Amino acid sequence: MTPNPITCTPDTSIGDLWNLMLTRNLRRIPVVERGRLVGIVTRTDLGNRSDINLRGTSVATRYLPGEQEQLLRKVKVRDIVPIDQELTTISQEAYIEQAAKILRESRIGGMPVLDDNGKLVGIITQTDIFDAFLEMFSINQRGSRINIRLENVAAELVTLGKVLCKHNSKVENMLTLPIKNERYLLILRVNTVESEALVDDLKDAGFHIESVLVKQ
Predict the structure, then answer these.
(1) With the CA atoms of 136, 142, 147 and 151 taken in that order, what torsion angle do they form, in degrees rounded to the nearest 10?
(2) Separation between Cα atoms, residue 47 and residue 120, nearest integer Å
(3) Residues whose CB falls within 8 Å of the CB of residue 29, separated by 6 or more in sequence, listed in order
(4) Which DSSP state fits 178?
(5) CATH classification of 143-215, choosing from 3.30.70.260, 1.10.1200.10, 3.40.50.720, 3.20.20.190?
(6) For 166-175, how does the pLDDT look when each residue is reduced to its tens digit (9 = 90+)?
(7) Which run of H or E residues covers position 3?
(8) Closest CA relative to residue 91, chosen from 32, 37, 130, 42
(9) Which residues, in sequence order, are CB contacts of 155 under 8 Å at separation 6+?
(10) Which CATH code fits 2-134?
(11) 76 pLDDT band (50/70/90 cuts)?
């Protein structure tokens, strides 16, 4: 998550809010009143009122015409977002896959993160989750990705472990995927680009190696 997110209050003007969104490149900002989360305002919310015209205002320009900006300073966040709206939030102790599931099912791009006392401690977005999965799966790290087909996952993992120990291979991550009407696919990432001997021993141990990808 992004900790200590930028927030606004119900009395923040829409002009100030819009400039804040543009200068900080934000798509959503939590609304906090007396330390309590009471809502969240998005760029989409700003387009839902006929008296707010933000056409032609972009990150490139960053500024509104003077007369229009004066008008927008009279409109407050509370005029756009219902206070105490029903919010989709998540606990800071939740697992990353729970956050991904909620965002996907709710069809939203981000949501506030709360502590056990209901205090806002962060905000998590789809981009945060993408970055987390890229890191968890070592996508951009140097090493070898070995795709292996398995029949009996539990038994074959024992044999796999023995081969890895022989080569003193450091496992960056390992993932099994069930595929309908096919053998399980095991995606194994090890921290070496010199994986030829390891792959040969895996084949000798009876493993079907589907593919090997080396990232220098």
Answers:
(1) -60
(2) 26
(3) 5, 6, 7, 8, 17, 20, 21, 40, 41, 42
(4) -
(5) 3.30.70.260
(6) 999 999 999 8
(7) strand 2-3
(8) 37
(9) none
(10) 3.10.580.10
(11) confident
- Contact in structure between 118 and 141 (CB atoms under 8 Å): no
Where along the chain do its domains lie?
Answer: 2-134, 143-215
Q: List all residues 6 or more positions away from 170 whose beta carbon is below 8 Å from its beta carbon.
A: 190, 191, 192
Per-residue pLDDT tens over the stretch 117-164: 889 999 999 999 999 988 888 788 889 999 999 987 888 999 999 999
Side chain identity, residue 44: T
What residues contact residue 97 under an 8 Å CB cut-off, 6+ apart?
none
User: Is residue 54 a contact partner of residue 18, using CB atoms and an 8 Å limit?
Assistant: yes
